[in-house]
Input
Amino acid sequence: MSQLTHRAPTHLKPLFAALFATRHLTSASASTSPITVETSLPFTGHKIDPPSRSVETTPQELLTFFHDMALMRRMEIAADSLYKAKLIRGFCHLYDGQEAVSVGMEAAITRKDCIITAYRDHCLFLSRGGTLLESFSELMGRKDGCSKGKGGSMHFYKKSGGFYGGHGIVGAQVPLGCGLAFGQKYNKDESVTFAMYGDGAANQGQLFEALNMAALWDLPAILVCENNHYGMGTAEWRAAKSPAYYKRGDYVPGLKVDGMDALAVKQACRFAKEHVLKNGPIILEMDTYRYHGHSMSDPGSTYRTRDEISGVRQERDPIERIRKLILSHDIATEKELKDTEKEVRKEVDEAIAKAKESPMPDSSELFTNIYVKGLGAEVFGVDRKELRAVLP
Amino acid sequence: MAVMLQSVGMASISATFPDLSDKFSVRCSVPVIRFDASSVPGWIRGTRKAGKITAKAVAAPSENASSAASKTGHELLLFEALGEGLREEMERDPRVCVMGEDVGHYGGSYKVTKDLAKKFGDLRVLDTPIAENSFTGMAIGAAMTGLRPVIEGMNMGFLLLAFNQISDNCGMLHYTSGGQFTIPTVIRGPGGVGRQLGAEHSQRLESYFQSVPGIQMVACSTPYNAKGLMKAAIRSENPVILFEHVLLYNLKERIPDEEYVLSLEEAEMVRPGEHVTILTYSRMRYHVMQAAKTLVNKGYDPEVIDIRSLKPFDLYTIGNSVKKTHRVLIVEECMRTGGIGASLTAAINENFHDYLDAPIVCLSSQDVPTPYAGTLEEWTVVQPPQIVTAVEQLCQ
Output
């Protein structure tokens, strides 16, 4: 069994986590027996009947949720330290507090379904099969990064996992998401696309344009608004006339979900996937919260009080909720969960150490991947003496 | 006869066809092997395949009449040629689809996509709402899943609304994803100064897009190259912007029946000559050829090259021409500031400075919004007499 812990990979495939999980269970047979849990809040629907509050889950799944969210939380906090140590530069947008959206969504879908999001993409990348090493390497601009160090924090992609990024311009990913859905419909894939955006992006015109088209052609697009109540430094009530983002679709049905409850997210995503394959688009509003500021250059406390942040952390923290569930159902002991957190911390530290050893990209990489099967045109570097390369 | 792209250093070979002539010029189909398009002679690697070059001047009508009976191919208008190319590619590859305003049921505002929706259905020839930003984004998202969309901008000027999508997601996504995603889209539409269409509908977007890394730009000017470039653009794995011109849609020409694809990075030798190299593209090609008639009567022998590939420039063909004539005149429809001509001037100066006997002259449109009044509009654009004067001054 110890072999499993060493093998405990940086992947987050539930299968691996399940193998990991059985180590904690006193009776192996309990691992997959279903438990029914009530979500924290009922769903609110707009032009649609909301799904039931009772969610089916298994101890195995709950342990997976705990492990995955703890891993994500740890990764984001480590990224915070790395940024302050100037190993990560530029923009770094952290997802801690919002982990439940990522794990809940992943639990409800397959890898054939597509997810596309904006720049707060580190954790979604992990949940879609990305590794910690790829993540940290990319953040530090190293060769082993998922985009070879050329994308950075805002451009994580994982084609094999159905993760389409990773986009810096607010709102531009939503039309792309509808395009992914168009491709799925064209190819008759029976899969869906989750196009994620924030409450700030909800005011972008291209979102409504894309929604119109998705509804017109019944595209299997699920628009997910991760409403963390602040669009960069501006609170939602100061930016939006109607902050009920799930209603903004007007003719498109919507569902408001407690985004800090992984099981509610899972229920909503499963419901949405079924709906959308038959009826065209739907909007999901995930009511969530980010502990960090908008990005690392934003302290996050000038436009909201520290009391508010700590209040949410005490009452609604997604990891704490799952921890309480696990403990109350006797799936694992307090100590075992703490051990999981220690394991996760170690994993992250190891990945960072490995990523630090990864080399910077070669200077010839400046000119690769601009064109596919390139043209053979010559390119000069700034001083015309160095960096001479033929566009490959 | 598809374009073949060889790997190390070599590039495309265009198809050879019997010489075709039209009212204005002789088109020479010269198989050219492209490679590192460097100017420096020492860098030239690879062999140059000899091809048929017929160095005829402007075709005399009598020659045409005699061979008219035995001519192969079929005659059509430029917009029909585009449509034919598009249709052939859609038949060949089920992943090719068209998106744009009025492309389906209406048949296309310039009839390029006429009858395609009837043949391929509403999903493959998609009528979009008037939302350029998002339908361009949508097409790019579809390309990420493996489809090959052809986006039509009803007028190129409208694509300014989609600039973010074209620049960031179309051009740069292949790079920022470390090569994971390719975006094989074609963005096409008519642009350029028309007949009194007004300022907003007479824009030349090639100058705005030329800095975007990762895209290729081509401009078609005859039915022959329109069909060939359309097919090549659709088959290319890179995002290609195909610039058409509002006033050229009704040009008629005889094109081959056989399938052919042209190279996207190659310029076209319209009229070989000795005294001066005139570089042009799109509609200005016709102004140049008109001026060429006058120049020939006056005893000059201009070499006219239709550069076709706006990004990247075919510096190989251009370079060889500069080395021969030592004088360059660029005639374009872009604005003077920051246009294609400005970039081309810089590129030629950088690479072929030693071969120039005179400074490069660039004739472009005036830096003004295109006025509505007919006479004013004429003055914003380069006219044949100005070209003749420029050549005379250059060749002194």
